[in-house]
Amino acid sequence: MVKNAWSADPGGHSADLRFFSRSYDPRQELVEAEEAPKQPLHEDGFPLRIKLEQKKVPPSVLMGQCRRSPLTGEVILHVDPAYPNFQVVDLAGRDWLPRNRLFLEKDEYLFRPVPLMYRTWLYQSFFLNPSGLGKASDLDYVVRQALDAWCMDILIWDHRWSPVMAYAFIMFLSSLTLDGTIIAMACAIGLLTCAFAVSCNTARIYQRERWLSLPFRFAFLCYILIFFPMATVLEAIGSTLLFLLVSTEIILGDCYFFPSYRFHCRYNILRSLGCRVYVCERDGAVGMPAVVSRTPDKMPHQIVQLPKWTTQNHLIVELEGLMVELRPMRKEDWSKAAQEFGETQDPITFVSLPLCEYDGPEMQDSSDGEEDHLPKKMARGAVRGSTHLETLRAFRQAREIYGGNEQLDWMIQAKLHLIGIHPLKSLVGLLPHHELIFDRSLTDGSSEPAFANLRHIEDATDPAAVSPVHGVVHAISQKELASLDSSEAPLYERVQMPVQVNTSDGPQEVQAWTYVGHGGSTQEHEEPLHANEGRFWACPGFGC
Fold first, then answer.
1. Which of 427, 439, 534 is nearest to 473 (CA)?
2. Which of 84, 196, 219, 426 pairs with 108 at a CA distance of 20 to 30 A?
3. Rounded to whole angstroms, how far apart are CA atoms 230 and 17?
4. Are residue 234 and residue 342 in the same domain, yes or no?
5. Cα–chain-centroid distance for residue 543?
6. Same domain, yes or no: 56 and 113
7. Does residue 22 have a pLDDT over 80?
8. For residue 215, how far is the Cα from the chain centroid?
9. Which of 199, 230, 255 is the last residue of a domain?
10. Which residues cross the membrane (predicted)?
11. Is 27 part of a structural domain of the chain?
């Protein structure tokens, strides 16, 4: 298969084409591609090292984006695309976190955010429609007002859904009774509950909606029970179904208020720590810790500044319009994060709040030196803005920005994928009797000149003649070759050269395409690359 691929006609349209790209050490790339290092695993079977990426929270992008559905009672947050989706909160204000989970599990400054959706809706409602300014010295008046509201913060079946959801079916079902009074009452109560649902959908009176319509709904149930139409089989069936549906709505809606009332609570602010972080004490919801299997969290004293932390205490933060409870990251949480990272390879995102100064042990992660630091903003901008794969940047500037061969290889691979080059096969190749030169005449007048070029060596005694240009020979399609032509134009032109490759049958010489500057290099502008420069520059090729 390899032999057939490399013996194809380079001018054909249906066969694989050979393309030679120049680089510093192609063998290293091929070995890494075939023998990818195995990622170390934690004792739970998930990756030991995970990547964490810091996110910035833009100010006030969520304010006014939280709504409560008047029908279901569910709070809906219309998240702005600028607001990050974060999984960890760092209260030490750090810009980076170690990758090793053994260090992360011991870090006391990392917390798991638990959104309080109803508190968020209450906070935004009170903020946008303030009833008073509070005390002049109370800078946390709106937060205090939202936390002091009596509501339920856990997600269970509750009574907050509107009766109009059931009466949408009751109105149609009442027609089976063939009783004009029952039909009229069902329609009237349905419209009444709809009006109550809309008018009571505010932060101050949303809990009164069911109580306001309960007398009318209970009277309707009694009327059905007293005047039970059953003159015909259809009336009997309709009356029975109607009675069951009306009574079920009252039981699941109004009567369920009593078992769910034990989960209602309010929070009293004990201490404001700064950065909108508050130490609170819960008033009510005595049975909540048992239901959610919550044990007292191990909170660091330097953060909460309390002598004793119990299940009644909570650490709550307001993050630009979002009310969030902070709970310490446990081993189980890091295990889930590692599982997600192992499946998606997406970084675990965190938000930093400079609440306190980190005074823990200096965690020197051995993996930090090996971390695949992707280029920063300047590097990614260079990749996106690079016009020529044969340059990607002057090698001197690239060395200064990226600091080594790995980052330049990353840029080359990114550029390849960007223009849709996916080689079918790759082999190590050598281009004899040529040398890599630094040609400053290759420029299109833009801010990014092209520098790399090839020069044929006529003199066999030239030291460069015995040191061929290293590279990789790729099998690509005619369409991909056309994409390369477009990428390298107008500074480079495609030429065919004899390239030595190592196949399963031994060394062979094949004709492969590569790119050189138009018309060759001008002697007055060209400079041979020194050994170290040529090794680093990797003459920019494709798939180096």
1. 427
2. 84
3. 85
4. no
5. 28
6. yes
7. no
8. 49
9. 255
10. 166-199, 211-230
11. yes
Examine the fold and report which residue of 357, 389, 419 is the final residue of a domain before the chain moves on: 357
Task: Give first-to-last CA distance, the chain, whole Å.
Answer: 23
How far apart, in whole angstroms, are the C-alpha atoms of residue 451 and residue 332? Answer: 53
Is 530 a residue whose pLDDT tops 50?
no
For residue 16, the number of C-alpha atoms closer than 13 Å in the C-beta half-sphere is: 20
Burial letters for 144-171: b for 16+ Cβ neighbours within 10 Å, e otherwise?
A: bbbbebebbbeeeebbbbbbbebbeebb
Average pLDDT score over the chain: 75
Q: In this structure, are 422 and 514 located in the same domain?
A: yes
175 in the same domain as 30: no
Query: CB of 257 within 8 A of CB of 159?
Result: yes
Return left, alpha or beta for 539; rule: phi > 0 is left, psi -120 to 50 is alpha, else beta. left
132 and 187 co-located in one domain: no
Q: How far apart are CA 197 and CA 206, in angstroms?
A: 8
> Which has the closest alpha carbon to 115: 278, 338, 347, 327?
327
Instruction: Please name the residue that has the structure tokens 């060759």.
Output: 520
Q: Are residues 348 and 400 located together in one domain of the fold?
A: no
The pLDDT, as a whole number, for residue 224 is 92
Burial label, 135 (beta-carbon count in 10 A; 0-12, 13-18, 19+): exposed
Specify whether the CB–CB gap between 475 and 6 falls below 8 A: yes
Domain for residue 186, yes or no?
yes
234 vs 479, higher pLDDT: 234
User: Does 510 reside within a domain?
Assistant: yes
- Residue of higher predicted confidence among 14 and 223: 223
Return d(Cα 182, Cα 302) in angstroms, integer.
66
Predicted TM-score (pTM) of this structure: 0.60
Q: Are residues 297 and 150 part of one domain?
A: yes
DSSP state, 253?
I
Q: Tally the domains of the chain.
A: 3
In 371-443, alpha helices (H): 377-385, 395-402, 405-418
Say whether both 193 and 213 belong to one domain.
yes
pLDDT in tens, 115-167: 999 999 999 998 888 766 555 446 688 899 999 999 888 877 777 899 999 99
8 Å CB contact between 513 and 494: yes
Q: How many CA atoms lie within 13 A of 480 on its CB side?
A: 21
Range of the structural domain that residue 425 is part of: 2-36+374-537
Residue 529 has, within 13 A of its CA and on its CB side, a CA count of 27
What is the Cβ-side half-sphere exposure of residue 278, based on CA atoms within 13 angstroms?
Answer: 24
Task: Output the domain CATH number for residue 412.
Answer: 3.10.490.10
Mean pLDDT of 519-544: 35
Residue at 326 is within a domain: yes
